[in-house]
Amino acid sequence: MSTAGALRIGTRASRLALWQARHAAAQISAQRDAPPVELKEITTAGDAQSELPLWQTEGRAFFTREIDRALLEGRADVAVHSLKDLSTELEDGLVLAATLTRADPRDALLSADGARLGELPHGARIGTSSLRRRALLARARPDAVLLELRGNVPTRIERLRRGEYDAIVLAAAGLARLGLEGQVSEYLSPERFPPAVSQGVIALLARAGDRATLRWLESLDDRQARLEVTAERALLERLEGGCQVPLGALARLADDTLTLEACVCALDGSRHLSAAGTTAVPAADAAAAAEAAALGWRIAAQLLARGARELIAQERAARALSAVEAP
C-alpha cells in the first residue's frame, strides 16, 4: 500500500475501465475496516495505438502490460483488467487474486436501424476489432464486408451512428456496465458465436505475497467465475493462442457440473472446428480448480486432434503476409 495507507488501483482511463475499477473499489470498500482506495489511471500500448488493428501489433497484453508493470514496481497495489485482455502467463511476481462475478458473456450486435444479423442488407458493413468475431461473422454472413473498428465503447457506437458501419459487434457485458443495453439490436447466441475466453469477467491482480492487499481481494473471488475461466484459460494456454487467434470458448458451471464448449474458425469462415465436454466438480476449491483446468486441456486436445494447430498456423501466416503487403 501507499505510505498514506490507501489501496492504489491501477486502471486504464476509458469510461468502461473506470467503471470496472470503481466497481472493484466499491466491493473492497464495503468490507469492514477496509482501507481507503485511490484510482491510478495508466495509459497502455493498446490505448496509445488506437487506430492500428491489434492483429497487426506485435506481442500481447496490449491493454494490461503497463498496468501490471506499475503493480510490480510498487506504483499500484491492485490491477483491474477485463480478464479477456489478460495473458494466460502472468508477469512473474503477480497473482490473479480475484475473479469477480461474471456478467453476460455474450456478444451483442448493434445496427443502425435495429436490424438483427440475419436482417442486415446484402454486403452490410460490419465493424469489429476481434479476429474471433470476424471469423464467426464471415461464417454466418459470408456476404458481409467486415471492417476494422477500434476505440472505446462510446466512440465505436458514435461511429456506427455516423454511418461508417451498418452494424458493429461489442461485448454485452461492457454495454450493460455503461447502461447502453438499449442500443443492442440482437444478442448473439453463444452456440453460434462463442465468446472470447473469460469475456464478462473482471480480474483483480496483486503482487504475490502482498498479504496486506490480498486480504481485501481474495474474499471477492467468485467461485463460479473462477472455475469457468480456469477451464477457458487452460484451453487457451494449451492452444497457445491469444486475442489474435479466432478462438471462442464458454464454460458454464451448473450445480457441480462444468461444461466447456469451444471452437476455432478460419478467418474467412470456410473452416470451423469445435469440441465440447463436461466434468464433475469436487467440493474442495483446489481440487475443483484442477478438474476445471483438466477439462480445458482435454477440449484443447480434441481441437488439436481435429487440426486446430494447423488452422491457427495458417491464419497467422496469412495475417503476417497481409501486414507486410499493407500500404
How would you describe this protein?
There is one protein chain. The chain is of the alpha/beta class and 327 residues long. It has three domains: 1-100 and 201-221, D-Maltodextrin-Binding Protein, domain 2 (3-Layer(aba) Sandwich), CATH 3.40.190; 107-188, Periplasmic binding protein-like II (D-Maltodextrin-Binding Protein, domain 2), CATH 3.40.190.10; 222-327, Porphobilinogen deaminase, C-terminal domain (Double Stranded RNA Binding Domain, 2-Layer Sandwich). Helix content is 35%, strand content 23%. The protein is built from ten helices and 13 strands. Strands 2-1-3-10-4 form a five-stranded mixed β-sheet, sandwiched between helices. The protein has a five-stranded mixed β-sheet with strand order 7-6-8-5-9, with helices on both faces. Strands 11-12-13 form a three-stranded antiparallel β-sheet. α8 (223-238) packs parallel to α9 (285-305). The longest helix has 21 residues, at 285-305. The radius of gyration is 20 Å and the shape is globular. The protein starts with 6 loop residues before the first strand and ends with a helix. The model is unreliable at 55-59 (pLDDT under 50).
